[in-house]
Please model this.
Amino acid sequence: PPYMLHRDFITDEGWWGHNARNHFLSGRWIVDDFNQAIFAAPVHTVLLRLSFQALGLGLWQARLVYACLGLVTLLALIWWLRNAAGERAALFGGFVYAADYFSFTYHRVAMVETNAIAFLTLAVALCGMRWGNKWLALFLAGTVGALCVFTKMNFLFLVPALVAAALTRCMADG
Model:
């Protein structure tokens, strides 16, 4: 980041956890005028709230959600690559993703994009699933894709790509 940018500005974990914290402490989602999380990232807010309910209120409880979703991303990526390109590609791609410094560090902070990426990767992997009921897999892919969008609304622009992946799967299988 530019040297002029304050270091705390790019780590907005507290901003995105604000409404989940409010609900944990007061039982109300909205207690003030700062409500970006509940409106722009409702799935994210609910996931944090569930973590706080199970483990208590704290930064590690918030970050644990994203560490777990980082593992979901890794496993979905391996599954997708295995179905699309075979065992070697899956192992290589999984290793590259797991060893990538950016993804490793990003999955250690409570940022909204981490769970959206997990849902998106899982949705694409479901579109590429080659066994079982194709229509069930595509339905699940759409459901997980919706979770992705409602995790962070900015991911709405990826819906056409997900639809294209589903249509490609339908045309490939007949």
